[in-house]
């Protein structure tokens, strides 16, 4: 009996460690590398086409490229762009974005912030100016419109005592001209020659086209044509 009790206690004294497996996060969701995703579904995810997605990654690669520091593999440029577009396009929280792309919440937040900063730093100036320029020219071509604006030509300070009148609003001497340009970039009318301190309204009223529009001279603007100017020009003619 005593021997049987001793044999029963032996397994209880032996420690058998349980098997352990390290947790491995699933692979990142990379729809930009999956050709099986339809183009319509890709646009639903990121609000842009696959071609535009690749172009955006190319433009922002210099700002979003990260070097591995030995503490894990950083997100690729494509992944950061995808996270940023998904957050902007859907307004999802970082927790949901983490579940979608199989990344951490903090990683999603940092990737989205880097994407927005890169877009503002790289694309805000050149693309907006180019887009506005194209839109203005197309609008002028469609509406048969002409642009009227004031241009300052730099001038050396005159030797006489009236040089102060040539100092414009930017504190340098110039001669002011009023130019009218059509939608194709052709000069239709040029007038001026006054000192740089002369206001746009005064230059307009002294010009031949201004006299024509104010009713003091024969008409110069063709029928059904538009003349586009800034706030310095009178709005009701």
UniProtKB/TrEMBL annotation:
Its cofactor is a divalent metal cation. Its main location: nucleus. GO terms for cellular component: nucleus. Pfam families: DDE_Tnp_4. InterPro entries: HARBI1-like, HARBI1_dom. It comes from the Eukaryota. GO terms for molecular function: hydrolase activity; metal ion binding; nuclease activity. Residues 152-235 form the DDE Tnp4 domain. Keywords: Hydrolase, Metal-binding, Nuclease, Nucleus. The keyword Endoplasmic reticulum does not apply. It is found in: Nucleus. Belongs to the HARBI1 family. This is DDE Tnp4 domain-containing protein.
């Amino acid at each position: 009996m005593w021997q049987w009790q001793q044999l029963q206690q032996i397994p209880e004294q032996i420690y058998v460690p349980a098997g352990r497996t390290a947790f491995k996060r699933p692979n990142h969701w990379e729809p930009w590398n999956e050709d099986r995703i339809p183009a319509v579904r890709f646009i639903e995810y990121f609000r842009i086409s696959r071609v535009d997605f690749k172009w955006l990654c190319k433009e922002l690669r210099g700002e979003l490229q990260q070097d591995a520091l030995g503490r894990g593999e950083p997100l690729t440029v494509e992944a950061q762009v995808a996270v940023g577009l998904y957050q902007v396009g859907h307004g999802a929280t970082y927790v949901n974005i983490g579940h979608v792309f199989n990344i951490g919440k903090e990683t999603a937040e940092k990737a989205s912030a880097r994407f927005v900063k890169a877009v503002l730093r790289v694309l805000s100036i050149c693309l907006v100016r180019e887009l506005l320029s194209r839109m203005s020219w197309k609008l002028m071509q469609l509406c048969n419109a002409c642009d009227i604006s004031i241009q300052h030509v730099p001038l050396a300070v005159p030797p006489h005592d009236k040089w102060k009148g040539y100092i414009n609003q930017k504190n340098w001497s110039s001669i002011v001209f009023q130019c009218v340009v059509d939608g194709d970039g052709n000069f239709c009318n040029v007038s001026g020659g006054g000192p740089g301190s002369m206001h746009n309204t005064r230059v307009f009223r002294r010009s031949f086209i201004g006299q024509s529009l104010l009713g003091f001279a024969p008409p110069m603007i063709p029928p059904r044509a538009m003349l586009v100017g800034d706030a310095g020009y009178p709005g009701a003619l």
